[in-house]
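Re: weekly structure request thread

Next one in the queue (169 aa):
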Amino acid sequence: MKANWQSARHSITPGSGAVPDDSRKTYLQRLSHKYNRIRIFSLIFMILGPMILYNEGVTSVWLLASYAILLGVGSIVDHYLSLSIRAIDPSLMSVTEVMRRILNCRKIHLRWVVIVLPIVIFWCAALAYVMQANIYFVYGICAGGIVGLVIGVHVLLRFLHDYRAALRE
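Done, posted below.
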C-alpha cells in the first residue's frame, strides 16, 4: 500500500502536466506576451529599417533617425506595458486594484496610439516628399499606409478585446 501512495505522489507533480488546461494563458498573460512580441519586432526594425531605407535611396538623416527613435520609444512603451501587466497579481490584489491597473495600462496604450498616429502620418508624408522622384516608391508608401492602417486597427481591436476580457476575469 505504501508503494501505491508513493507512486501516486510521484505521478502528480507540478511539472508532469497533471493539471488540465495547463497550457492555457490568462488574458493578462496574453497581453504581456503580445507587448513583448511587438517590442522585439520594434527593436529589430529599429535597426533594420533605416538600413533598408538608406539602401532604397533615402539619404535624409532626419528621416532615418526619426524612424529609429520612433520605434525605440515604441519599444520602451511596450516594455513598460508588458512589465506593468505582468506585475498585476489578481490573487494578491484587490479587485479594484487589479481593475485600476488594467485600465491604466489600457489608457497608456490608447494615449500612445493617439500620439504616434499623427507623427507616423507626418513621417510618411515627409518620406513621400523626399522620394517624390521615384513615383513607385510613393505608391508603395500609400499602399503600405493603407494596409498598415487596416492591420493596425485589427491589432488594436484585438488588444482592446483582451483588455475587456481581462477586466471580466
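The chain has a mean pLDDT of 88. The chain is about 80% helix and 0% strand.
Next request, please.
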